[in-house]
Amino acid sequence: MARSEAVPGANDNATGVAAVLALVERFAAEPLPGTAVIAVLPGCEEPGMGGMAHWLRTEGTALHE
Q: How many CB atoms within 10 Å of residue 56?
């Protein structure tokens, strides 16, 4: 599976997404002082965490700033 192409639409983690969205809603209503909250819900986990790897390459470098 790690060598296969990503499978569009293969998403089985709706509960995790719902939990993250609830946390984002809570942090928006009650921000933590001096804290930036970034929610990343990448897809493409089955073929080797492709979504997260892509996000880290393209956006993750801003975490060091």
A: 14
